[in-house]
Structure to design on (902 residues):
């Protein structure tokens, strides 16, 4: 409690100092504590932790931006001076920090079951999972277990003062085919601690076993069932296409297509930040703009682009609550300036079960995971990814696992050929599987 | 600083530990971002933090922390975690011997970036930007100049006391061309570990990449399938880094029994003409350093000699586990991370063939160039290539685009049948093995690979 009071005093001093030296200021502070336990085939490999804190300061003076950050906010004066110095570069900032009062109340407080989680509990859970698989398969088992406790505080000169605490745990279970280091994996995550249920492990085991036979089908166009673990291939390209930054930089192929049918009518996509039954819910973005449920595509029709403060001002539109201090590979939010990003992208569930979708496939592959989703011409929507792994299906039956194959296309073409959308979201990804027709698959044969 | 650090390691919780070390580092970052003619970020910032590692009863645990006042909590947690790990491992973790170096290493800089004003840096980028933006078909050009100056201090309970500074300069960007609905992007990059001069006078590079972005608008999409290809040095370097190099990092295969068997030393892993080296000691190259983040002096490792696996990259922990000598390859991204085993300067040793001889040997296939992203999962890899040319009867034909290559490491190493005579090493890095390593350098010569899966769009 004493530390909290001291930190508040330092923050107030920082706000006062920054306020006197600039037209506008914004203070972003984040503290994080993490624990991670790693189990690999030979046994427990690593137990690690982090205890980090940091403060980022944005100043606007004469419509120019100053930015500085520090890990140790001992001297607020120094941080303000650093931000003032960077004003000299004359980066334009034609926006006003938002007034955000009373954002929606979300149930985000760390659950006591997560706060109380210890590495001993993770070790116990990892052993339980290992024991489940140990005598049932030859898989090399990898388990990554951990939790994160985060606290974010944001204060600006417009009078906005927001804070957010969260606590989540995760378990990533990977069954690796011996000798290849490629496997099938599932994520178990949540806001209140619950061990992984056995039926879920059983399903993962069955999937693993379906891949014990290796198969080399012929190249060609075929059905591809994109599993949730492969969908970031599409989402990165769509996120790029709908970003206000791409629009401003004239590299979005969707620039003049608002209101047009872009994707299959089976696809409705939206940002769902307020759903606090899932980890990561947020009532405001990382520059204090209130968040909302936000439509990207409705039945395949392009509805909205998304913006942060900066690009909204540049394009003379309203910010949409998508200012995030991140990048495609993640980034340290303390040291990164906000940029437009969609952090809660969802695809509306369809009406087919996974089994029904597989039974609809005459000849095709189930794409569990991909390699190289970040490579190629992303703004244009092109993708060309290696399978990691994929299962070959004929007449609705899984025949075996494919290695050394590539799946390629353009997201805006492939997602017009959607045949079915799964009727539920895969936990951890919170996305459904998509079955697409006529996708190019290049194999060794 | 060393005195303050020693106080942390005097914490009573460490009395019964077998070993502990502490790294403190500052990281000064300068960033200048230019989007078309608009400056979107410019400034200098400083961050700092600590990483403590503890070995106790066969468990090795680490905690990263940013405030000195959190040191007692971090040390106590590391001790607790090491004890927990030791109790739950079938085999105790040990550390191979590492000479307790006491040294200070400051890089040899031809032009110290700290002596170049922010104003001059912005002005330099603006000059470069005029080149792509002077062409009608170029719709955007984004440039980012980044300088990272790390001052690392490392001490251990065995007596290591090493300070090493690393200065990295990188200029990266993307030039976008457009014609109707077709959009093409070309990556551009230069930089290094020996000073600011690496990003001066690179107008020819901007001219070349601008022309490439425009030419790609008329290139044909490559035909997917299995092809013989020549990959240029940039792609060869990324291939050897991604597909093979990560398996020579001992921490990747340490706990994968079947992979350990496949990567047994003295195994014929590649074509007899293939030799691969990792050498962090190559001065002026991007991956240069003297000591790793365990205070171990780095050394050259011959990873493959004439197709036979002859070495691998180690931490003190993996060297003890494999019964092999330490190599000094434990590197952390910065103060937020404990080190992991990483490559320094990895490259395929050049052969004897001229480029024309390679084309003749290829006869029919593709010559593909420059990397556009890459990833490896287990023994399989996928890389995007920026562009290429069809090769017919040993002659270079029309330009192709939308290229990704994929394959199996072991088959591909065997299918490397010819090597060019010129070694080229990369100037910018960005390996993403859990943490980002901007000092990751790779290279090779033009390399002929048979039967590669090429996935066009």
């Amino acid at each position: 409690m004493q530390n909290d009071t001291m930190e508040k005093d330092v923050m107030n001093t920082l706000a006062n100092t920054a306020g006197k030296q600039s037209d506008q200021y914004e203070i972003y502070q984040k503290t994080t504590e993490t624990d991670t336990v790693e189990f690999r085939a030979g046994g427990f490999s690593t137990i690690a932790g982090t205890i980090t804190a940091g403060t980022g300061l944005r100043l606007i003076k004469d419509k120019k931006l100053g930015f500085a950050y520090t890990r140790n906010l001992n001297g607020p004066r120094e941080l303000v001076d650093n931000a003032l110095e960077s004003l000299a570069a004359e980066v334009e900032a034609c926006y006003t920090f938002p007034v955000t009062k009373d954002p929606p109340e979300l149930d985000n407080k760390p659950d006591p079951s997560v706060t109380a989680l210890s590495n001993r509990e993770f070790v116990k859970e990892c052993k339980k999972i290992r024991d489940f698989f140990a005598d049932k398969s030859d898989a090399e088992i990898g388990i990554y277990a951990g939790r994160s406790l985060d606290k974010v505080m944001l204060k600006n000169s417009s009078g906005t003062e927001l804070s957010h605490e969260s606590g989540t745990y995760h378990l990533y279970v990977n069954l690796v085919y011996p000798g290849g280091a490629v496997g099938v994996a599932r994520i178990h995550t949540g806001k209140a601690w619950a061990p992984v249920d056995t039926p879920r492990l059983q399903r993962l085991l069955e999937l693993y076993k379906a891949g014990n036979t290796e198969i080399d089908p012929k190249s060609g166009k075929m059905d591809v069932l994109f599993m949730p673990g492969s969908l970031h291939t599409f989402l990165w390209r769509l996120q790029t296409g709908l970003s206000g930054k791409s629009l401003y930089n004239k590299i979005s192929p969707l620039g003049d297509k608002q209101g047009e049918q872009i994707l299959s009518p089976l696809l409705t996509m939206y940002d769902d930040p307020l759903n606090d039954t899932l980890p990561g819910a947020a009532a405001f973005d990382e520059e204090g703009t209130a968040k909302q449920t936000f439509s990207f595509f409705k039945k395949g029709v392009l509805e909205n682009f998304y913006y942060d403060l900066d690009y909204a001002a540049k394009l003379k539109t309203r910010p949409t609550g998508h200012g995030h201090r991140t990048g495609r590979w993640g980034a340290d939010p303390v040291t990164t300036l906000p940029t437009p990003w969609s952090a809660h992208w969802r695809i509306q569930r369809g009406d087919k079960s996974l089994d029904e979708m597989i039974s609809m496939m005459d000849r095709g592959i189930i794409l569990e995971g991909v390699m190289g989703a970040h490579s190629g011409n992303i703004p244009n929507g092109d993708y060309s990814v290696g399978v990691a792994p994929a299962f070959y299906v004929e007449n609705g039956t899984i025949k075996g696992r494919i290695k050394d194959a590539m799946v390629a296309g353009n997201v805006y073409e492939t997602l017009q050929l959607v045949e079915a959308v799964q009727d539920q979201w895969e936990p951890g990804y919170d996305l459904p599987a998509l079955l697409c027709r006529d996708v190019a698959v290049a194999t060794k044969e | 600083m060393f005195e303050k650090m020693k106080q942390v390691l005097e914490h009573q919780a460490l009395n019964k530990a077998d070993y502990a070390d502490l790294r403190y580092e500052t990281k000064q970052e300068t960033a200048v971002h230019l989007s078309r003619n608009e400056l979107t970020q410019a400034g200098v910032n400083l961050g700092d933090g600590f990483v403590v590692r503890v070995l106790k009863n066969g468990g090795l645990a680490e905690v990263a922390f940013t405030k000195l006042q959190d040191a007692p909590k971090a040390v106590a947690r590391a001790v607790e975690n090491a004890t927990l790990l030791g109790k739950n491992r079938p085999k105790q973790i040990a550390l191979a011997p590492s000479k307790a170096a006491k040294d200070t290493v400051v890089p040899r800089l031809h032009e110290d970036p700290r002596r170049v004003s922010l104003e001059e840096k912005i002005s330099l980028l603006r000059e470069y930007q005029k080149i792509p933006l002077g062409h009608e078909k170029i719709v955007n050009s984004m440039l980012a100049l980044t300088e990272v100056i790390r001052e690392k201090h490392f001490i251990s309970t065995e007596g290591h006391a090493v300070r090493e500074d690393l200065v990295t300069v990188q200029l990266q960007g993307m030039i976008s061309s457009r014609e109707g609905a077709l959009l093409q992007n070309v990556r551009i990059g230069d930089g290094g570990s020996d000073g600011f001069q690496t990003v001066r006078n690179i107008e020819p590079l901007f001219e070349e990449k601008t022309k490439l972005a425009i030419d790609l608008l008329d290139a044909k999409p490559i035909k997917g399938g299995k092809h013989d290809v020549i990959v240029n040095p940039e792609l060869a370097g990324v291939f050897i880094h991604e597909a093979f190099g990560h398996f020579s990092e001992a921490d990747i295969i340490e706990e994968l029994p079947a992979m350990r068997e496949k990567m047994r030393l003295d195994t014929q892993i590649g074509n007899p003409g293939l030799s691969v080296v990792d050498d962090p000691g190559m001065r002026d190259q991007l991956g240069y350093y003297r000591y790793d983040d365990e205070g171990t002096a780095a050394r050259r490792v011959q990873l493959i000699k004439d197709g036979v696996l002859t070495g691998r990259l180690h931490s003190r922990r993996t060297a003890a586990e494999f019964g092999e000598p330490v190599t000094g390859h434990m590197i952390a991204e910065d103060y937020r991370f404990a080190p992991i085993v990483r490559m320094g300067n990895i490259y395929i040793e050049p052969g004897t063939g001229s480029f024309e001889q390679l084309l003749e040997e290829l006869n029919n296939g593709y010559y593909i160039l420059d990397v556009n992203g890459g990833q490896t999962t287990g023994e399989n890899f996928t890389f995007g290539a920026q562009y290429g040319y069809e090769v017919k009867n040993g002659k270079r034909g029309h330009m192709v685009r939308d290229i990704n290559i994929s394959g199996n490491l072991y088959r591909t190493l065997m299918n490397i049948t010819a090597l060019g005579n010129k070694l080229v090493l990369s100037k910018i890095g960005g390996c993403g093995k859990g943490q980002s390593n901007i000092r990751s350098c790779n290279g090779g010569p033009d390399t002929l690979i048979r039967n590669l899966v090429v996935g066009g769009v």
Summary: The radius of gyration of chain B is 23 Å. The mean pLDDT of chain B is 94. Chain B touches chain A through 95 residues (CB under 8 Å).
